Amino acid sequence: MAKVGKRYRKLLEMYDPSKAYPLKEAVDIVRKFQSARFTESVELHARLNIDPRKPEQNIRIPVVLPHGTGRKVRVLVLTSDPEKEKEAKEAGADYVGFKDYIEKIKQGWLEFDAVVATPEAMREVGKLGRILGPRGLMPSPKTGTVTQNVGDVVRELKKGRIEIRNDKTGNVHVIIGKTNFTPEQLYENAMTVLEEIARNRPQGVKGSLFKSVYLTTTMGPSVKVDLNDVINELRKRGVKV
Hints:
The protein is an alpha/beta fold. It folds into two domains: 16-68 and 162-236, CATH 3.30.190.20; 75-159, Rossmann fold (3-Layer(aba) Sandwich), CATH 3.40.50. The chain is 34% helix and 21% strand. The protein has helices spanning 2-12, 23-31, 82-91, 99-106, 122-125, 129-132, 150-159, 183-199, 227-236, and strands spanning 20-21, 41-48, 60-64, 75-78, 95-97, 114-117, 161-165, 171-178, 210-217, 223-225. It is globular, with a radius of gyration of 19 Å.
């Protein structure tokens, strides 16, 4: 434990934890947090000015990161349609089936990262709500994971499609890549996430949507991002903040 603490303290010496950095600088800093043991994920954490107790202010947005997350995504497709099964397999789905996989999930099997279902399957898939819902895995028309276009959705998920959603405290936590990504890749992924959140600003939110934004790595400390820098960049992109 002392060894981990020593490494953490060394990382804190690489920057000023009390300072807010422009996003590009924050990206450069977190990339230097790379551990020698494994390639760490880079995470974006945003505290939003929303009231998660109000359903209309909750955020749930599907987005394809331009450079993916750097993680292999295991996709499960649930359908009773043989044609859709074939389409899903050809698109690269890891698991394709229906009632057999539903039973496996009921018994505790969760070796997948995303679930896609066709509309006719939802009567049975809906029974998995208590298992899949809390894990953010429940298929939903809102995020496009209940669809007849299973091939397109599977390909998007494999390329790096993620779901941006707030937790019960109004915070968003998203993996935007790995420490071995280029600074440009991490910056573009981060801006894609922030832009999608801003473009989907919930009704009823007063004042600035973003309260704070931080970047961090799996094992590293957090780097505060300068909100003015983010807001200026979003405005350049024609986004109202």
